[in-house]
Hints:
Helix content: 25-40%
Shape: elongated
CATH class of the largest domain: Alpha Beta
Low-confidence stretches: 247-253, 344-353
CATH topology of the largest domain: Rossmann fold
CATH superfamily of the largest domain: HUPs
Largest sheet: 7 strands, mixed
CATH architecture of the largest domain: 3-Layer(aba) Sandwich
Strand content: 15-25%
Number of helices: 10
Strand order of the largest sheet: 4-5-10-9-6-7-8
Structural class: alpha/beta
Distance between the termini: 54 Å
Order of helices and strands: EEEHEHEEHEHEHEHEHHHH
Radius of gyration: 28 Å
Amino acid sequence: MLSNFDLHEEPDSKHLFSRPRQLVPDGEDTPQGIFHRQLACRNFYEGMETITQVYGFSGIDPNTVMLGWARQSRDPVHFTRVIRHCADLDYNILLMDYDRERGFGKKQKIDIWWADGSNNAVLAVTILKFLKTSTAWQEAEPRILVVINDSTIENRVYKNLTELLEAQRIEAKVKVINNVIEQRPTDEIIKIESRDADLVLLSISALSIHNPDRFITRTNALVNDLSTTLILCASSYFEPLTIGVESTPTTPPSLSTKDKEAIKQDLPPLPTPHETSNGSHVAVYNNLMCVYAGIERYIEEEAVVNMAAVDAVHARWFQDLTRVVNRSFQTLERRLPNMPKPRARPVNRRIAE
């Protein structure tokens, strides 16, 4: 059972709400089973907060609030406060950014962006089930997309998500996007992957909205390049669900105290460029050679032995450091043209891969 409230703002009204007026929509395309109410209120956002607090009657309590996305809200702080208010009341929150030009397109492609370890994913799958039972969307091809930053979990994530969908009897294509190498922002990946989708389902956490203006601006920048988008925030009715993405390490393994002391002994301190005179470039060169040798030695002796602990983050660190050293050599070459060059040797392929 659905209730649609059509709010009209009357700032000079003596009461928060005027007497409600029941609307009876005309037209064959009007969905059945929806109660329409038209209300005049002093303030849109105050009206929303009040309705969510008091609406309902004994035995039938609402559990979901659907709002239009405030793309050009004149009061983003109050709008985000309404979202937090609905979350505090433990509602499912659906924010619809409807594409007025494309609408729902051909209703053939649905993209769901998986938020692992969150109950939003369960709500998204539930909505997908309802959509697939409707005549309009029954031929749609849904995709479940998940971004990972750890190559070691790619197969496990794909397997877990596929088995989950099979258990729920949902036919959907699973796409695991490995972001280890490119390290692109998630919003950029969403824009590229879902640019042709007719409906996109995204997740938010109401508790993470600390800066209303930034939240509105960032969300606008994302949905502007997408078709109709539904932004979800689930209630506690849905249990959090994980497929293994949350185990992705966010920082490289730390070195032991013994390893740190060994590195300190192997790599002498380098004078900074502004502290060196023209006559000390040879000393800088010798120190850089020690750094270069230390990198090679660590790769060959330590990293290869402990490959399980050496992930893509380590590889990027080695590559970045090597580039810095090489640039330093190039600077010295311009000042010391007869300086011997270090032998070119790429970072260990096993680590780079």
